[in-house]
Design goal:
It contains five helices and nine strands. It is of the alpha+beta class. It has one domain: 3-Layer(aba) Sandwich (Aminopeptidase). A hairpin with a 2-residue loop joins strand 7 and strand 8. The structure holds coenzyme A. Coenzyme A binds next to strand 4, helix 3 and helix 4.
């Protein structure tokens, strides 16, 4: 999509509530009054000036339309096979009416670039099997593990970042 911009959530503090609501509605568990507030506080902490953690937003014509974050680890109770993997791409989300215009890919690229600029050779994520194949694989992400997490089989993927490619 033309006219979009990817910026740090810290540059759009007005969007913390909306990003928290998206996250809660897509992935939240537990009662709304508790879980939404916990999620809101998490994004307020991730509204940093860079580094890890850092949340990013996609902006189109001044409207915040999506979000993705760079975090140390994206699993609260990680399976042993993923414990040492760092850092992670977390919570890629585009509001439904703005999907399929490239914003999701732009958010992923921005987080990849941020990790690469911090000299991380690899970035990790977990997702469901369909999103792994349809969304992430075409962007060069490869499946490395399929552990059980929170009662479901998930796909753990890695992206080898430009920092390492350049030195090989
Ligand atoms: C996944 C998501 C971020 C993609 O955002 P987007 O802005 O539509 O992404 P893009 O426009 O860059 O790319 C969309 C492409 O991915 C495909 N895609 C994305 N998720 C898909 C899914 N779950 N199943 C099938 N295809 C999917 C689309 O079909 C489209 O392919 P096309 O270009 O060949 O038509 C968005 O669908 C979303 O927010 N989903 C809910 C949250 C989610 O599942 N996040 C990722 C899990 S970690």
């Amino acid at each position: 999509m033309r006219n979009h911009q990817i910026t740090r959530l810290a540059d759009r503090p007005d969007a913390v509530d909306i990003v928290a609501r998206w996250d809660f509605e897509e992935w939240g568990t537990g009662p709304e009054e508790v879980s939404l507030e916990v999620t809101r506080r998490r994004f307020a902490c991730w509204a940093t000036d860079g580094g890890i953690p850092c949340a990013y937003v996609a902006v189109v014509d001044d409207e915040v339309c999506g979000s993705a974050s760079l975090v140390d680890h994206d699993m609260s109770d990680p399976p042993e096979s993923t414990e040492d993997l760092r850092p992670w791409l977390s919570g890629v989300y585009v509001k439904p009416e703005r999907r399929k215009t490239g914003l999701g890919a732009a958010l992923v690229e921005a987080v990849e670039k941020a990790a690469s600029n911090l000299h991380h050779p690899r970035l990790y994520l977990y997702t469901g099997p369909v999103t792994a194949v349809k969304f992430y694989a075409p962007m060069g992400w490869e499946k490395i593990l399929s552990p059980r997490y929170e009662g479901k089989e998930v796909v753990v993927m890695q992206k080898v970042l430009a920092v390492e490619k350049a030195s090989t």
